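FAQ: What does a multi-protein file look like?

Like this. Sequence, then tokens, then the next protein.
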Amino acid sequence: MTRSRQRRPRRPRGGATRVAPALAALFLLAVALGGCGSGARQVRLMYAGSLIVPFERLATAFEEQNPGVDVVTESHGSIQVLRHVTELNDRVDVVVSADEQLIPPLMYERDDPATGRPWASWYCSFATNRVVLAVSPRSPLADELTPHTWYRRLAAGDVRFGLADPRFDAAGYRALMVLQLAEREYDEPLLLEDTLVGRFTTPITVEHEKGVDVIEVPEILETSAGSNIVLRGASIQLVALLESGDLDCAFEYESVARQHGLKYVRLPASVDLGHERLRDRYASVRVKLDFRRFASVRPEFTGDVIRYALTIPANAPDAELARRFVAFLLGPEGRRILAADHQPLLRPPEPDDPAAVPEEVRRACAGAG
């Protein structure tokens, strides 16, 4: 789990001020007690780990435009983000998933026990991405991982590569989809099995159902002794291991690789989940989780083009401030920040149900075409 939770410090304005020691002591005491009496409003964001870099900039920019507002940020794998709201009773103003298809089963189809109503009734898709194979600059195999050889090197078993846990992170189940789609692209019928067999104590398997390849992930997913795979709860946790050379490569989003200056192998369009025209091809793969935490929903995810989506939970602590933040994110300044950090954007953003979307959000979507 990646956690970046903080009350963001306010930036000082103007020149330095000399403070008497007694007053300084009182100020430090107030800070230690959590800023009691400051009257600052908070907007709490919980989002997919691949958005850490641009969302920290968004948070700072929003605070600067809204004096008296603190932005509190926290990141996890996308599935874990939604579970924090619906199962762990974490009250959040805005949630952002790296996969739009997670929101309906985890928020629309489940009710808040406190109110008897769904956790959310709308979402807005605003960004996209594609999967790449990020390569460590310190790896002795870096030059051997190319667009023409990467899949063979992974299957050979001597490359130490990272994988996000598909039970918690959309990047994890998307990496499995990429491997399965690569079987057809490269005419390697057992590529996924050759890459993963023997690497987990309970195997990941593939079944074929009416033209769809169904990848089945066991409830307990642990790497076996001597495995060349490193499993982490969120894909962003693999970046430090790439930078240190503890991994040779890892499946990451292209935006993350670019934000961290990592070399990466660009995958074929038919494999990378990044092209609208290939949605039917991506849909030939499905991931099924045998995970009891999903007992109340159907834990199956069909291959699709990558789409990030956000919503405001029905129990948001400050719904008015949440709407203002979402409108800022979807507006000109927010989109400029996202684009500067290599996050591909949908133009315009697409609400799943325009009638259910708050007016401020609907206006921001209409103005972002």
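And here is the next protein:
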Amino acid sequence: MEILVTNDDGVQAPSLLALVQALRKLDANITVLAPERNWSASGHVKTMHRPLRLSPTVLADGSSAWQSDGAPSDCVALAMMGALEQDFDLLVSGINPNANIGLDVTYSGTVTAAMEASIWGKPGIAVSLDAPENHHGRVDFRSAAETAAQLTWQLAERANGTHPAPIYNINIPYRPEGDYAGVMITRQGVRIYRDVLEKRIDPRGKPYYWIAGDPPSGIKEDGTDFGALAEGYISITPLKMDMTDFALLEKMRGEQALHL
């Protein structure tokens, strides 16, 4: 199996290295192509108005990797379109140091990298760790990485031949000792954002803005990604690119026709 690995925190992020080292224990070839800088909260990006560049780099453990000046989804597209002159069976993105649940998936470079893989007909797995906000000291990714590798192998076997190519959004509670309550297959929950807009004035008297506020929370419901994490479970949410609201579609078809 040929596995492509990327992230949105940059190729030198310790979370990516932990994931790569865990995936190397599988019966698979691991190739890293990740952004050269942090693209957190970048969403689904396709760079079309400037050239994209690839260059070799070395991870902290001395292993080789590739980096790009593009976004996470650019990295996936480059690899899937043949920039690395090999075919890939699967994309694993992460580990993001914070959870990507509910509507986070539309913002997340980690998740949208997995979406890009699905566009190219390959399964995409996004892995995020629900590390505490404002965590002091080094975040321990080892248990999450080992868990992600185990789940990657199982999901890859289930995804074989599935069309369209599946997208799996994995969120792992922060349990450095690996004492998870189990694995739960979930739906997207409700994320509650507490964003506020701060207007400030620069030294030249011109306004600028910061999007600030408290960290988001969510509604704890059974069967949701947020609910699973709150109970200590690993959440796996299958996603799809078709965003059609079928209930509203049928309702509108049954209503009086729109006209010009």
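Q: Is there any per-entry metadata?
A: Some entries carry free-text notes. For the entry above: Helices lie at 14-23, 72-80, 104-107, 109-119, 142-159, 225-230, 246-254.
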